[in-house]
Every structure is written in structure tokens, then in C-alpha cells.
Amino acid sequence: MHALHNVIWQALTTRHARFAEGSGRARRFVREVSPLTAFEDESPEGYAAVAELVGAGGTAALFLDSAYEARPGWELMAGGPMLQMVCENGGRETARSDSPEIVQLGVTDSPEMLELAALTKPGPFGSRTHELGAYVGIRSQGKLVAMAGERLKVPGYTEVSAVCTHPDHTGKGYAKVLMTEIMRGIRDRGEIPFLHVRRDNTRAIGVYEQLGFRTRTTPHFAVLRKS
User: Fold this and answer.
1) Of 47, 37, 49, nearest to 70 (Cα)?
2) Residues 22 and 126 in one domain
3) 203 and 116 in one domain?
């Protein structure tokens, strides 16, 4: 199995095992870290294990191999097609002399990170998401206006995630600057950067392709609620 196949499951059973809840065929991240959930395989037994893990009325945010097909006991709340992109041969860009100052983000920045994520909706982001890896940002007049960081980690690979910019500061190249910094750290560890993006987010995909990312697979995101 490729390291990036069923990547949430592989993260929760390897490099992110300390953040995992559940056992057997189903795992999920601690709620404050991420809503992402996974099963060992997309089988009736896998769905049954997730149902037992989340309980009646609970939700599961899953990455599926193909579009979700309705099944008894589950309601589709949100979802859509994605691209899983990998940067295996991208160049190592150097910061320009006029690049904005990059700051390291941590626990004390969590409220601002949550606020920016809520405004820009780069994907699920919780009060402890920053614990998954390195996070960097750009400030303007003291306010956090852009950030990027690391999320899923599996052997040999780290995901670039939470790439977002305040609407008042788009068009300045902040996403590219911050992603380049995160990717530099990933490569310095001898790992390969990858990411997930909605298939209809053509603007973001264009930026990622400029940085050397290429599509590996086309999974689907599904947020399901157990009845």
C-alpha cells in the first residue's frame, strides 16, 4: 500500500497515533485537534466500526476513494471531490529580499489562527490543530493575516495544510511565501510534501502547481452523521 493511500488511517496508526481515539477498524483524531476520521477499509465492517466510534448523532469526516454512496444509518452533511497533490520534484525556492516577515505560530496564537480559519475556511481547524506540526504566519499591523502549516503525517510524507489569507490581503503572494517555508522544513527532514484541495478551487490549484505539486489521486471528502 502506498503511504498516501487511506492517508488519515495511516496517519492515525503511525506518526499521529498519539492523537488517535478508537481501536479495531476505526480511528479518529481527538476532537480538539481535528474532526478527521478513518476506517481501515471502506467495507460494511468499516462503516460499522465508525458508527460505534462516533455514536448516534455523531459525525465523521472521511476521505473516500470515490463519491459517497447513500447507505442506511448515515446522512451526508457535506463533501465533494478533491485532489491529492504531491511535490516530489519541486524546486527549493529562496525567499526574496522584499518578502514579508514570517513568524512562527504556536499555542498563544491559537485564538487568532482559529479566527482566520473560521473566516477563510481552508478546512477543518480546531483549538489544538497547531499541535500536528509546524505553523507559520504573516502579520500586518500586529494582526495575523495569513498562515500555513502541517497536518497529516505518514512515513516519508507530511501534508501542507491550513493555507489561508485574510480577504483584505489576498493577491500579495502570501500563500506561496508561507508554503515555501513549510515545504523547506518538510524537505529538511528528508520528507515529501503533499496536500489536499477541493477540485473546484482552481485558483489554489494554480498556485500549488507553480510550486511543483502534481495530482496523485482524486479522493472525495464526506462529512457523515450517524442517525
Assistant:
1) 47
2) no
3) yes
**Which residues in 149-168 are b (16+ Cβ under 10 Å) and which e?**
bbbbbbeebbbbbbbbbbee
89 band by pLDDT with thresholds 50, 70 and 90: confident
Residues contacting 143, CB < 8 A, separation 6+: 112, 166
**Per-residue DSSP letter, 14:** T
Q: Cβ contacts of residue 6 below 8 Å, gap of 6+?
A: 38, 40, 41, 63
Q: What is the number of structural domains in the chain?
A: 2
Alpha-carbon 159 to chain mean position:
6
- Assess if residue 1 is contained within a domain: no
Domain membership of residue 150 as a residue range: 85-217
Q: What is the CATH number of the domain that holds 16?
A: 3.40.630.30
Residues 43-63: tens digit of each pLDDT: 999 999 999 999 999 999 999
Q: Is the pLDDT of residue 147 over 70?
A: yes
pLDDT per residue as tens digits for the range 112-139: 999 999 999 998 999 999 999 999 999 9
Which triple of cell numbers denotes residue 35? 474532526
On whether both 197 and 102 belong to a single domain, the answer is: yes
Same domain assignment for residues 135 and 96: yes
Whether residue 167 sits in one domain with residue 60 = no
Q: What is the pTM of this model?
A: 0.93
